[in-house]
């Protein structure tokens, strides 16, 4: 087994991030990879991102801070995933690994076929591999059973795994049959420089509740359909009277996001004649999320399942009080009102949130978020995982095959076969194109950017 | 952004808490696993304890329908062997139609003349349509050898039995909640194709018409009739099934000894071995639930 020379220097890692999901596509995983890479670059590591081509964006691109991105010319075929070919990506992954003198491969997201393939090839070539799981999965339906088997295959041989929450760790350990000590919990963070609260405190005469999410079943759009009219009924707009010494508050909703359930929400709005109290914005580009958030007082998240909800962090960073389902351990108890995914309970939670709202100071909340979540902290914690992964001993093919064999009566044997073929193909490639023929990229040291610039360039990078 | 909560720099580390915020907890690595790990996991929460007798009773529906199909095959065999003539077949059709209607109306909650006339009109259209099409069915498969027809018919019947909806009825009975599924529709179509294939082997047009009518009556409406009987009274359902099974076994016994023993074996397998097997397999049930599961909505989504 040959290993890049960069292995000797312990301090500076050379990391290849692999996922099907990266900018210009948008979502939690894309965000995570971008910010983590930026912060790792600042820590002095070399980071290269590999993803598939998006539209005509194919080839090598540079992003802020000298982040090099390989858009591999493979077309996505389903939900931004590349076609699983097992070995099709081996030559290009090998070339990138050698060209960039990579020491460690870090794959993201369990649905990403590119990530699974890259981790498999990387392990075959003797590189260390780390995997981050961003999602939760059940155990009952056919899709989950298949995904869990694929995950088991990949994780059987990765050196360390990272999960974004404690629930996610429990889930991953069960799904992939890993020892829990191999799984690290490193939550996502939020770019507090980008999500700043409104400079002036909004008046509390009219309370604005903001919802920003894709309007799909999993995000609890059906709960919103039940909750919004009930809240509007509890806080009627028309009557202003003094009762028990306090004025009745007015409540307005702003719903950002698009999806199949948008029709239902609009129907609900028509049926209850709430056109003046429920504003539907449609899809909100991520760059505008902050400006929508700061126009509200309370952020409402009704998700039915969530590995780690970044939207809550963004809202809290903008100084909004959050009412959420399924968001345990994400924020301190005084910054969030938790509810069960049940309409009555959510209405109660919103009532409670409106009651405690006057005590919330957005600026204080923002400062607290700054201390609680930071991508730099995430990068430092991930660095520890990389160190651990690199300390793992090198194993030969036989030892690795033995581990695969324990993955299941039939699956184990299939996994072994897949790995043996991969190993043979790799050796064939070595003969066909020896690694000394692959040109290595020269080192370019870019001046370090200031943290403020990261978020400024962030919006440019998306397009 | 550079700040990071370090906690108290006291020598004794704070107890580890299951939190996502605040960065790495002092004194604990990120892969720290404490005893609360997986404590919210629930195993086999929704497992239904099954009762042998109940499963056996439920399996009666399957053996009942199995017998219905075997009876149809018997009638086909007799017709092809010219044991049953055209007139007796037409009489059989009429008798089945009459008794079917009788059962439907006796088990219905309330009789309605409107529904009856609606049914009669539909049946009238159906029969006349079939009569007009009979010459086409008669010559439909002339160019295909008989062996292929038998093989195909057997295959289609197996598909039919395999995909049949034993719990409900593909023809939607009044008051049924669910729409028929795709598989039950495929099953129904397989049976109809099988009937057409068999009918096309018959010598006269009237025979083709009679056998088609018979097969369609049974395949389309017998699930409806048995469903109604079952809904009306479970005891009656059991008696009816028992009668049907005995009749079928008797008929098959006179036809072929080997087929008789095969059918008997199959019926025993369905009503006794399979339920026992199902209950035995319950102990391998391994269902995992936990906080990662998608929440179930506690209300119905009204589209």
Give an overview of the whole structure.
The complex is a heterodimer of chains A (463) and B (303). Chain A is of the alpha/beta class and 463 residues long. Chain A folds into 2 domains: 14-189 and 378-436, 3-Layer(aba) Sandwich (Rossmann fold); 206-372, Glycogen Phosphorylase B (Rossmann fold, 3-Layer(aba) Sandwich). Chain A is built from 15 helices and 18 strands. Chain A has an 8-stranded mixed beta sheet with strand order 3-4-2-1-7-8-9-10, with helices on both faces. A 6-stranded parallel beta sheet of chain A has the order 15-14-11-16-17-18, sandwiched between helices. In chain A, strands 5-6 form a two-stranded antiparallel ribbon. In chain B, 63% of the residues lie in helices and 1% in strands. Chain B has helices at residues 52-80, 86-107, 113-140, 146-163, 182-199, 205-232, 234-255, 257-281, and strands at residues 42-43, 288-289. In chain B, helix 1 crosses helix 7, helix 6 packs antiparallel against helix 7 (234-255) and helix 7 (234-255) packs antiparallel against helix 8. The longest helix of chain B is centred in the N-terminal third of the chain and has 29 residues, at 52-80. Chain B is elongated and about 100 Å long. Chain B starts with 41 loop residues before the first strand and ends in a 14-residue tail after the last strand. The relative contact order of chain B is 0.15. The interface between A and B is large, with 57 and 33 residues. Chain B: This is Phosphatidylinositol N-acetylglucosaminyltransferase subunit C. Chain B: Belongs to the PIGC family.
